[in-house]
Amino acid sequence: MLHGLSESFFQTMEPCLSQMSPTRGAPPRPTDRAQIIVVGNEKGGAGKSTLAIHIATALLHAGARVAVIDLDLRQQSVGHFFASRRTWSEANGVEVPMPWALPLSEEATRLAKLPADEQAAAFEAAFAAVATEAQFVLIDTPGSDTGLSRLAHGKADLIITPMNDSFVDFDMLGQVDPVTLELVRPSVYSEVVWEARKQKMLSERQSLDWVVLRNRLATSEARNRKRLEERIDVLAKRVGFRVGPGMRDRVIFRELFPFGLTVADLSTTVRPVPVSLTHVAARQELRAVMQAAGLGDLIEPRTTQAADAPKSAGVKASARVYRPVAASPPR
């Protein structure tokens, strides 16, 4: 049980937690309003922004109306990504789907120095501007505990937490005994999500879905990875999150970022870098992420050779691309 919560409340939440079991899928999405997706983890360097831009572009290519809000007021990686995306597409005469990308302020770094209530008011204004128009509102949060981050978590229908496959990242979710490596208790970020879940249940009588995506590290040793997997499974059952595959640290992700593009964008007309078979694997990886997040029903696969086939003679490749299943978002 988490600190500061009564046993009676924990029992009240049990039906909600059972829906979030790692053995079950995501609960139904809201149909009468936008679904709020928060990408969060108080540990920096876990790949939140990389994950956020890939989920956003995958949803865009599925034809969804997507709004993006970047709460990392200092770094603004997601905001810069979509600004570059528009600039690149206009310069090259190529159309790529765009979200509503609303900055909280024209000077985000200045807003970061203002009082918390002014930051909250800016966020609420941006959120209200898109919540009734978009099908999905995706919020990228900073790698720290801030008032804006907690405010976003309180609005979430789905929280997606990327973590690198190491005990360094796991420490933000749960603490282990240094001798036995057994799970001792949930850690600080688990408490943040629990508080958001409690508020949502009390105010809306709605459950909050939480998915932890494990980013595989090339240097991750098999025995250590198994130990970590066992602790994650124990914590998942204890605090109620689902576990899925994350995204590897691939060169193609870094290559495409300056253009404001992802592997979901690559086609015969959008190809700013040479395409290889590893890009096919990257697309499949993105599809697995969407499935794990409970968003896989929005994308319908079809096979193509033109979009992903390397230019090497005699090599053929097939890949997953995203076929629109709804109206295109406004530019």
Instruction: Classify the beta-strand content into a percent band.
Output: 5-15%
Structural class: alpha/beta
State the fourth-level CATH superfamily: P-loop containing nucleotide triphosphate hydrolases
The CATH architecture would be 3-Layer(aba) Sandwich
Number of strands: 11
CATH class bucket? Alpha Beta
- Radius of gyration, taken over Cα atoms and rounded to an integer in Å: 20 Å
The number of domains is 1
Widest sheet: strand ordering: 3-2-4-1-5-8-9
Number of helices: 11
Helix content: 40-55%
Query: Biggest β-sheet, characterized?
Result: 7 strands, parallel
Note poorly predicted spans.
3-23, 301-331
Mean pLDDT: 81
Distance from N terminus to C terminus (CA atoms, Å) equals 47 Å
Q: Strands, helices and their partners?
A:
Layout: H1 7-19, E1 35-39, H2 48-61, E2 66-70, H3 77-92, E3 100-101, H4 108-111, H5 116-131, E4 136-140, H6 147-155, E5 158-164, H7 167-170, E6 174-176, E7 183-186, H8 188-204, E8 209-215, H9 222-239, E9 242-245, H10 251-256, H11 277-292, E10 303-304, E11 319-320
Parallel strand pairs: 1-4, 1-5, 2-3, 2-4, 5-8, 8-9
Antiparallel strand pairs: 6-7, 10-11
